[in-house]
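User: Design a sequence. Structure:
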């Protein structure tokens, strides 16, 4: 581990619920990011409360949100490679590629990510 972490949606949920293991892991982090996909997934939960939205807004101000831009050829190529390499949903391919391209470990509870080559994954 290098102290750089990208959080999957389930890690954001766990962190905002006070998961002690996640909090401990992230206290020593040198960089924390989320994908814009994670932001969209979190904010589109049907049962999201106003409090949840406010808490996420505070959280978002403390991390880097990685955007998906058409001009980022390296990232787009990585997403396509991951998507073509196996049965990976497009949102997961985007999140994985963003972790790889940002030299970050993906924090997640989704074991399917462990199938992706070059991706450093840490379950919590």
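Assistant: Done.
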């Amino acid at each position: 581990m290098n102290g750089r972490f990208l959080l999957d949606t389930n890690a954001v949920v766990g962190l905002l619920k006070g998961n002690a293991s996640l909090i401990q892991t992230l206290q020593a982090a040198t960089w924390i990011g989320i994908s814009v996909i994670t932001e969209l997934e979190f904010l589109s939960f049907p049962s999201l409360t106003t409090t949840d939205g406010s808490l996420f807004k505070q959280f978002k101000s403390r991390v880097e949100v990685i955007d998906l831009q058409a001009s980022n050829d390296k990232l787009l190529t990585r997403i396509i490679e991951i998507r073509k390499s196996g049965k990976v949903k497009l949102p997961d391919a985007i999140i994985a590629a963003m972790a790889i391209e940002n030299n970050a470990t993906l924090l997640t509870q989704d074991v399917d990510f462990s199938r992706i080559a070059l991706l450093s994954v840490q379950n919590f």
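Helices lie at 9-16, 20-27, 36-43, 50-60, 73-85, 90-101. The chain has one domain: 4-123.
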